[in-house]
Amino acid sequence: MQHEHPAVVLCLSANGIGVVRSLRRKGISVYAYDIKERYQLGRTRHAVCGICPHPTYNQEELLTFLIRLGESLGKKAVLYAASDDFVYFISKFRESLSGLYSFLLPDHTLIEAVLDKRLTYELARKHNIPCPKTYIINHEDQLESLSNELTFPCILKPVFSDDYRKRLNKKAIIIEKAETLQQEYRIYRQYGELLIQELIPGNEDQLYGVGAFFDEKMNLIGLFTSKKLQQFPPYFGSASLMLSTREETSTELGIAFLEELQFKGFGKLEFKKDPRDGVMKFLEINARTWLSHSLSTACGVNICYLYYLSMTGQDPQPITNQKEGIKWVYLVRDFLSFRQKEKNGEMTFWEWIKNLSGKREYALFTWDDPMPFFRITFNHLYNAWKSRREQRKRTGKR
């Protein structure tokens, strides 16, 4: 295999760090960039790292930055986006970037649809994909009439989840009863647009992920499936503990949905099995590498490398089988989730340790590149301590 083309990775979160490592260990030259805050935490010795303009607030500056970078590299670089804001930026400026970078995304209308949860659920219903009942809120006046239709508890969910989580670090807000719906809506609406969704009961281990890479001709080149064991924040959040496993119903449903959509490039879907009727229900879709994708590499499906080979015209052989039973852990996030569950009387220390047992792949820690782990771990612990201190001040507790 030929590796003369460099790779450029945008976003130095755990997701982006995983992309960098998977490519560098194949001997590929990697350049990685992010805004200042994430760069300071996630810079890694496996890439030439730097600060770039913000993909949402400084788009013209970022475009100029990437054009100059591409011109300086000598060879056409393979471009990766490890966060939604970078995905949208690349999609929006795909014509300007395509001369200097190789990348593959679905049509821009699909990118907009997967980033806007209202459009996402319209797509699912159009293609007869089972999903939770979802209510679009255009005016606050709708809430009173909706209260008679809703089953409580239900959830408030951000329309644009990536931006919302940066503001509030919440993926969903549980509404326990009709009497609090309007009040809770007013509180959380200030952080971004919201929709209301049916709450599917069941634990986190009923959440299944289907990750895939389709090439330009919609050939399935890489496939990896897993299930969540724990999330951060608990109950509604991103994975902190994952297990490599094949679940056929979600796999068949997810691949068929991606094929119908002509979803080229990376696609990651999440489903939850509803214990009330046994139906696997669609929750979300992303057009990028996903947080726990390094687990796929540990299980024999290096989906980032397959993408590189495809983007450089090397026609990789599809890999759709995986090792099962390997866990992926984002240790500091999993610890913080455990602490919250312990506080709620839902998990003991020994139960948490048991969950971590077995063969593991770590989200951040490696012996040859330990510093991102220490910087990001300290940042999470500091933010958790600061949040508890502020809460104690508000409540008057010591």
UniProtKB/TrEMBL annotation:
InterPro entries listed in its UniProt record: ATP-grasp, ATP_grasp_subdomain_1
Annotated SUPFAM superfamilies: Glutathione synthetase ATP-binding domain-like
UniProt keyword annotations, A-Z: ATP-binding, Nucleotide-binding
Domain ATP-grasp positions: 121-312
Top-rank taxon, per record: Bacteria
Protein name: Carbamoyl-phosphate synthase
Organism: Paenibacillus spongiae
Native organism taxonomy: Bacteria, Bacillati, Bacillota, Bacilli, Bacillales
